[in-house]
Amino acid sequence: MTSRVGSPFYISPEVLSGSYDNSCDLWSAGCILYIMLCGYPPFSGADDKEVMKNVKKGKISFSDELWGDVSKEAINLIKKLICKSEKRLTAEEALDHEWF
What we know:
This protein is mostly helical.
């Protein structure tokens, strides 16, 4: 797959680079889970260009203020989904994760 498509808040770095496989969907699932648990996306910016720049960096944070009551298992799952593709969980591995 090489088409550059997706929403900035959910798009994976591989899609931005133009070479990706279905593991990019696990990145997006991690972003959705992140939003569901704290109320805001893992990558932000003043505009889409800045959001995508931050996506490429791939650095996410879990502030104690908003994440203090979220389980370690949920945070662990997110970290294993929003990461470099070679370290990212497969769908099957994600479903077997201890958080579920």
